[in-house]
């Protein structure tokens, strides 16, 4: 039996799980509920304020960290969950979910840097 | 003393004459303070001498009387009938293990796994007897004490879905015992045990369902032990791969 | 006496229906779908924001639709379930030494809940909501 390479992805999963547990509920509340309910004003006003917020370098770093960890946490857990549902094609699933997480992390990084 | 007639549906299997198990019902006059094991003993003594099951201590220390009671892994000597919901009580051999006969399961798989993790103190070097006993402080004892309470009853294996789905998984009790020896101040065998622990079939098959710890009659918390070993194995991995010069 | 052990198969795709404990576990695991989709949707939101006023308005309309709001509420529920299940098991995965023993589990769990509340408040304050 060879030692497993799971620690690479598991380390990110565990770190991501902790970060998500602290910040994701309140973030969903803000961007998923309060923002659509118009708490930041009409679209033009929220466009202004959101652009200002994500232009802040500290926000950029924190937001990228959160998105990256949330995506990896979700990807790894989804890999296990798919297996739990009885789909045993683990290597293919792993490539798909980590690929998805990697792609979106990259998009988030490039976009944040553009502000 | 109040007596109640209770029906027990017991899974029977005779490997010599049957191809698959079947339920058999027995009506037992149960005393108020009886546990399920008492009812089984009543059946064996007065109703049907052919019923097979394991037990020994009748006090939750030997670990031999584990079975599924209404679908939940329990020690039958600790399962008070008055605590179970009224109605028929269903008794089956522990899930996830092959049935040897009636309520007796085949334990070979667990025994092999337990052996593979070297569940004994491996000292740095053997000390001659004249040197006296190894000493341990209360603090050193506390490090592993919880994980040393295991009685090998295997309720945790019957509760663990990952073991049921992937029988290669080393499983809760064997891993909890691995942790117990790794944490022992007298022991220097962790590196040897990591060869089993850090594999896919070791801690990485676990997805922290936590069912093992919920059913454990001794509060061993195998799930917690496994997560601690995942963290330690992850630290090992990063040390080995990112700082190869530290591999001593 | 001849041996002929009988093996009971575990149903591969429906095993979790056997027990409430397993269903709770699957609910916890499925939270990842919502957290992942939310993170992806937020990333799309960033892209829309970078593209300009118009695209941002489109995105905003999307997440303000009944489906959008429903998703957010569901995701919020699952995210909270993730937080609760995660915090509750933390002391078992990470024991903190204290004296001869360890910091009691409930103390560690409570600390996590307090930090959770503080972090949430800080986020709301910084966004000018409170
Ligand atoms: S860890 Fe608990 S449930 Fe598992 S064998 Fe040991 S005592 Fe039994
Ligand atoms: S008979 Fe010994 S543990 Fe139940």
From TrEMBL, chain A:
Looking at the UniProt record for this protein, which Gene Ontology cellular component terms does it annotate, in alphabetical order?
Answer: membrane
Does the keyword field hold DNA repair?
no
Q: Which GO terms describe its biological process?
A: fumarate metabolic process
Looking at the UniProt entry, the stretches that span the membrane are: 12-37, 57-75, 96-114
Instruction: Tell me which UniProt keywords the record has, alphabetically.
Output: Cell membrane, Membrane, Transmembrane, Transmembrane helix
Note the Pfam families from the entry.
Fumarate_red_D
List each coiled-coil range.
none
Instruction: Give the superkingdom in one word.
Output: Bacteria
Tell whether Amino-acid biosynthesis is among the UniProt keywords: no
Which NCBIfam families does this one have?
Answer: PRK05470.1-1
| Name of protein | Fumarate reductase subunit D
Automatic annotation (TrEMBL), chain B:
Q: Which residues form the 4Fe-4S ferredoxin-type domain?
A: 141-170
Q: Which PROSITE patterns match?
A: 2FE2S_FER_1, 4FE4S_FER_1, 4FE4S_FER_2
One biological process GO term for this chain? respiratory electron transport chain
Q: Enzyme group, top EC level?
A: oxidoreductase
Q: Does the keyword Flavoprotein apply?
A: no
Gene3D superfamilies in the cross-refs: 3.10.20.30, Alpha-helical ferredoxin
Give the highest taxon in the source lineage: Bacteria
What NCBIfam families does the record tag this protein with? dhsB (TIGR00384), PRK05950.1 (NF004616), PRK12385.1 (NF009051)
* Quaternary data: Part of an enzyme complex containing three subunits: a flavoprotein (frdA), an iron-sulfur protein (frdB), and diheme cytochrome b (frdC).
Which protein is depicted? succinate dehydrogenase
- Specify the species: Rhodospira trueperi
Q: Cite the source lineage.
A: Bacteria, Pseudomonadati, Pseudomonadota, Alphaproteobacteria, Rhodospirillales
TrEMBL record, chain C:
Q: Sorted alphabetically, which Gene3D superfamilies does this protein's record hold?
A: Fumarate reductase/succinate dehydrogenase, transmembrane subunit (1.20.1300.10)
Entry keyword annotation includes Membrane: yes
Q: Name one Pfam family in it.
A: Fumarate_red_C
Q: Does the keyword Membrane apply?
A: yes
Xref: InterPro entries = Fumarate_red_C, SQR/QFR_C/D
Q: Which UniProt keywords apply?
A: Cell membrane, Membrane, Transmembrane, Transmembrane helix
Q: Name one GO cellular component term.
A: membrane
Q: Where are the transmembrane segments?
A: 25-49, 69-89, 101-127
List the protein's name. Answer: Fumarate reductase subunit C
Q: Which organism is it from?
A: Rhodospira trueperi
């Amino acid at each position: 039996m060879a030692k497993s390479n799971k620690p690479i992805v598991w380390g990110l999963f565990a770190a991501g799980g902790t970060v998500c547990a602290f910040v994701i509920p309140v973030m969903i509340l803000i961007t998923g509920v309060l923002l659509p309910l118009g708490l930041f004003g009409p679209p033009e006003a929220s466009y202004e304020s959101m652009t200002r917020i994500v232009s802040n370098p500290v926000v950029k770093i924190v937001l990228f960290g959160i998105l990256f960890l949330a995506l990896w946490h979700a990807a790894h857990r989804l890999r296990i969950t798919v297996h739990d549902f009885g789909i045993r094609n683990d290597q293919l699933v792993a490539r798909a979910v980590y690929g998805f997480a990697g792609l979106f992390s990259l998009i988030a990084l490039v976009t944040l840097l553009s502000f | 003393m109040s007596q109640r007639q209770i029906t027990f549906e017991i899974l029977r299997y005779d490997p010599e004459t049957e191809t698959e198990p079947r339920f058999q019902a027995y009506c037992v006059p149960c005393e108020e303070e009886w546990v399920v094991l008492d009812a089984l003993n009543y059946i064996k003594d007065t109703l049907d001498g052919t019923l097979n099951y394991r037990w020994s201590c009748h006090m939750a220390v030997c670990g031999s009387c584990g079975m599924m009671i209404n679908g939940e892994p329990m020690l039958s000597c600790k399962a008070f009938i008055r605590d179970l919901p009224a109605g028929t009580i269903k008794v089956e051999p522990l899930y996830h293990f092959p049935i040897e006969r009636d309520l007796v399961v085949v334990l070979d798989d667990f025994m092999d796994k337990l052996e593979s993790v070297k569940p004994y103190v491996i000292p740095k070097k053997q000390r001659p007897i004249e040197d006296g006993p190894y000493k341990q402080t209360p603090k050193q004892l506390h490090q592993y004490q919880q994980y040393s309470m295991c009685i090998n009853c295997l309720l945790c294996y019957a509760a663990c879905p990952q073991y049921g789905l992937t029988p290669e998984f080393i499983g809760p009790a064997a891993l909890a015992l691995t942790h117990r020896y790794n944490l022992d101040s007298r022991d220097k065998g962790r590196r040897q045990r990591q060869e089993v622990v850090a594999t896919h079939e070791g801690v990485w098959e676990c997805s922290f369902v936590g069912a093992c710890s919920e059913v454990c009659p001794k509060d061993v918390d195998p799930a917690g032990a496994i997560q601690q070993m995942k963290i330690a194995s992850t630290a090992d991995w990063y040390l080995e791969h990112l700082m190869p010069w530290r591999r001593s | 006496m001849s041996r002929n052990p009988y093996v009971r198969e575990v149903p591969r795709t429906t095993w979790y229906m056997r027990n409430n404990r397993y269903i709770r576990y699957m609910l916890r695991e499925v939270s990842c779908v919502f957290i992942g989709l939310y993170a992806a949707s937020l990333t799309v939101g960033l892209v829309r924001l970078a593209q300009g006023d118009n695209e941002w308005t489109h995105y905003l309309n999307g997440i303000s639709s009944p489906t959008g709001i429903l998703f957010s509420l569901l995701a919020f529920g699952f995210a909270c379930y993730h937080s609760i299940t995660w915090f509750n098991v933390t002391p078992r995965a990470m024991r903190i030494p204290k004296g001869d023993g360890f910091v009691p589990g409930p103390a560690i769990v409570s600390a996590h809940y307090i930090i959770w509340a503080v972090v949430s408040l800080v986020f709301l304050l910084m966004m000018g909501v409170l």
